[in-house]
Each structure stands twice: as C-alpha cells, then as structure tokens.
Amino acid sequence: MTTPCRTEKRGRLWPGLHRSAPPCFLFFFNRESIPMKLATILSSLLLAVCAAGAAQAAPDLAKGEKIYKATCLACHGAGVMGAPKFGDKAAWKPRVGKGIPALYKSALDGFKMMPPRGGNAALKDDEVKSAVDFMTTKSS
Ligand code: HEC
Q1: How far is the CA of 107 from the centre of ligand 1 (A)?
Q2: Which of 71, 76, 133 to mutate for ligand 1's pocket (most ligand atoms within 8 Å of CB)?
Q3: What's the 68 CA to ligand 1 centre distance in angstroms?
Q4: From ligand 1's centre to the CA of 36, what distance in Å?
Q5: Tens of pLDDT, residues 17-70
Q6: Nearest CA to ligand 1 atom 13
Q7: Which domain covers residue 89, as residue numbers?
C-alpha cells in the first residue's frame, strides 16, 4: 500500500522542480547581476594577486639588489677576506644551512670579519635583511 503512494508523490514533486528551476536560475544571473558578479570576482582576484605580489619576494629582491650593489658587493662580489662570494652556491650552502634568521643576525650585528650592516650604519634593519634575501636567493 505504501509503495504506490510514495511513487505518486515523487512523480508530482519532480515535474514541479523542473518547472521552477530555470526561472530561478535566470533570476540569479540576470542582466545586471552578471557584470556585477564578474566585477566583484575580478577585482577581488586582482587585489589578491597584488597583495600576494607585495608580500612576496619579488619587490624585496629588487630592493635587496640595490642595497647589495651599494654596500655588500664590495666584499661579497669578489669574496674579500673570505666573504662568501655572490652566486657561489658552495660557499653559501653551509651559511644558509644555519637558517635565514641567523644570517640576518650576522648581517645586522656583524660576524667575524663581516662588519655590522656591511659597515653602513645608515641601513635600516629591513634593508640589510633584503640584501641578505637577495644574496641567498641568488646564491642557492
Ligand atoms: C667589509 C667587507 C664586507 C662587506 C661590505 C659586507 N660583508 Fe658580509 N661578510 C664579510 C665577510 C668577510 C664574511 C665572512 C665572515 C666569516 O664567516 O668569517 C661575511 C659574511 C656574511 C654573511 C654570512 C654570515 C654567517 O653567519 O655565515 C652574510 C649573511 C653577510 N655577510 C651579509 C652581508 C650583507 C647583507 C652585506 C651588505 C649590507 C654585507 N654582508 C657586506 C664581509 C663583508
């Protein structure tokens, strides 16, 4: 007795769903809403890309390169006094192995023959760090 009853109900329910679904769908994506939704999606994508770009290494490396050329190249370019040479992966490997925070500290406070801030006391912490980022990224 129960089985035919259920089939009948389902039979009524489905055609109803099919009839109401297309207008609902159209209402959701109607004329104005498509460009608006696209604009929202695109602008949030753009924002996300920009935010990621700013937070990522790319601009820091450009800044680091400037600092490196102005201050660090003098010793690290040719390996003066045993400075790990720029681009010399073998020389940088054990240093990078100490961890980047340790290298920041060496660059900021000095380390053996490495003068604090490469001898340029005017450099800000983040400038010294970006030069370390630049040298280690390009040398490993
Ligand atoms: C006067 C020369 C000189 C200048 C300028 C210089 N360095 Fe160095 N640096 C050295 C020497 C020498 C060493 C190697 C020290 C050692 O391990 O004996 C060294 C080592 C380092 C190390 C590795 C430290 C460690 O813990 O292994 C880092 C990082 C570093 N320098 C960053 C910099 C940065 C960044 C600059 C520019 C802001 C810079 N150096 C400028 C001479 C210099």
Answers
A1: 6
A2: 76
A3: 11
A4: 54
A5: 555 555 555 555 566 666 666 667 666 665 565 455 555 445 689 999 999 999
A6: 83
A7: 57-138
Tokens standing for 58? 């790319």
Q: Which domain CATH number covers 96?
A: 1.10.760.10
* Domain end marker among 55, 83, 99: 55
Q: Domain count for the chain, please give it.
A: 2
d(CA 57, CA 135): 12
> How would you class 76 by CB atoms within 10 Å of its CB: exposed for 0-12, middle for 13-18, buried for 19 or more?
buried
Same domain, 120 and 131: yes
Rounded CA-CA distance 130/60 in Å is 6
Span 82-128, pLDDT tens digits = 999 999 999 999 999 999 999 999 999 999 999 999 999 999 999 99
